[in-house]
Specification:
Helix content: over 70%
Number of strands: 0
Oligomer: single chain
CATH topology of the largest domain: Growth Hormone, Chain: A
Distance between the termini: 57 Å
CATH superfamily of the largest domain: MFS general substrate transporter like domains
Order of helices and strands: HHHHHHHHHHHHHH
């Protein structure tokens, strides 16, 4: 399979499944509101879908590394998620406990597509290592910005029930398209004892391999800012005398910047230049640039300038994410690679949730100050990635000259 065709096949499969995982929450909230007249139950359904992915991540990662036929595993996972969404489409007619059980099962397989699929980038798009992860980052950005918007539009046209059924179909279609990827099993064993050993080996590698640990930590830390952003954007809009909905424009500006950055870094000429820079330096510099531009947005005197600065801050974030994915691959042995990707993605989800909670708890502060605080995690990634702790010298070791 040629390089361009492999990229097209990867995007054709990755974007639909990731679009569904990003947009399902919108449809669940609308379905609960319209069918049960309860926003609270909508929040419950979203939490039920999201929570298991963190807990199940190590096991799903171990299975992804071990299964003999990974494409069938992906298809099975897409079928489970599709069934869960189809069941949720009829919440009210279907007993709520049954819907909850279905969404719990669906949540358990989400890591197959968020993190797990990225572990196969080298096999799915062989050849240009850096470009493969740039394409992968593009799929995340496109699905992230398009998912909620498309689902909101489908809900308006088809009702929330129709939107959930459509998402189920999209998930199955994405799973089928992933069958075209040129990937095969890595020869692991999928029995419980082997899986347990695999989880232990991956955990040990994540904790003790310093270069990887710093990448995972920095990737998680920046999501504190990402989680704070939706709450803070609304507060900034109100503070500037605009309706709460104007906060969505700030989020859209950042998202458009991210998609633009991802598209640019996937351009062959730019990919070659990016690949020439050490990925750790690229990740650190890109996230730091996002932090600096977010600080600029915080001190901008007008709403328009704030939106422009946030749009610019999204540009380097995409480059940082591509470098982060590349580093995860380079610093992970093949037999635990999927686990590393899945667990790292789970930590980012957890820290994003913490960021949102923190932003809500300190919402009484000045919104410009809060936007400045959003920048801090991105700035913190720089020293985490590039500054290494000095190891103590052994007793009797000679003192370096000078």
């Amino acid at each position: 399979m040629s390089g361009r065709r492999a990229e097209a096949v990867y995007l054709a499969g990755a974007i639909p499944v990731r679009l569904v995982t990003n947009g399902a929450g919108v449809a669940l909230a609308l379905a609960a509101a319209s069918r049960l007249d309860s926003v609270a139950i909508g929040g419950l359904l979203i939490a039920v879908l999201n929570a298991p992915s963190v807990v199940a991540a190590p096991v799903i990662g171990a299975l992804t590394d071990a299964v003999a036929f990974p494409k069938r595993f992906m298809l099975g996972a897409s079928a489970v998620m599709a069934a869960a969404l189809a069941l949720a489409a009829f919440v009210g007619e279907v007993p709520l406990p049954m819907v909850v059980v279905g969404l719990l099962a669906g949540g358990c397989v989400v890591p197959v597509f968020i993190g797990g699929l990225s572990a196969w980038v080298d096999e799915a798009m062989p050849g240009d290592h850096a470009r493969g992860f740039a394409v992968d980052a593009l799929s995340y950005n496109l699905a992230g910005i398009a998912g909620p918007a498309i689902v909101a539009g489908m809900s308006a046209l088809l009702t929330a029930t129709g939107a959930l059924l459509a998402l189920a179909g999209i998930m199955l279609a994405g799973g089928l398209l992933l069958q075209l990827l040129p990937i095969a099993g890595r020869g692991g064993a999928a029995d419980p004892r082997s899986l347990a050993r695999g989880v232990a080996r991956a955990t040990r590698h994540l904790v003790t391999h310093g270069p990887l640990a710093r990448v995972v930590l920095a990737g998680a830390i920046v999501q504190l800012g990402g989680g704070m952003m939706p709450v803070v954007a609304v507060l900034v809009a109100v503070h500037r005398g605009l309706p709460e909905s104007a906060g969505g424009l700030l989020l859209t500006a950042f998202s458009i910047g991210g998609v633009t950055g991802a598209l640019l870094v996937a351009v062959p000429a730019i990919t070659r230049r990016v690949a020439a820079v050490p990925p750790r330096l690229m990740m650190a510099g890109s996230f730091a640039a996002t932090g600096v531009l977010t600080l600029l947005a915080a001190v901008s005197p007008s709403f328009v300038l704030t939106a422009v600065a946030l749009g610019l801050s999204g540009l380097p974030d995409a480059t940082g994410v591509a470098a982060m994915l590349r580093l995860r691959q380079e610093e992970s042995p093949a037999d635990v690679r999927a686990q590393v990707f899945v667990v790292a993605a789970g930590t980012r989800a957890v820290t994003a949730a913490i960021g949102a909670a923190v932003a809500g708890a300190i919402a009484g502060l000045d919104p410009s100050l809060l936007l400045g605080l959003v920048a801090v995690p991105w700035l913190a990634a720089f020293p985490i990635l590039l500054l290494r702790l000095r190891r103590p010298r052994a007793a009797g070791a000679p003192t370096p000259a000078g």
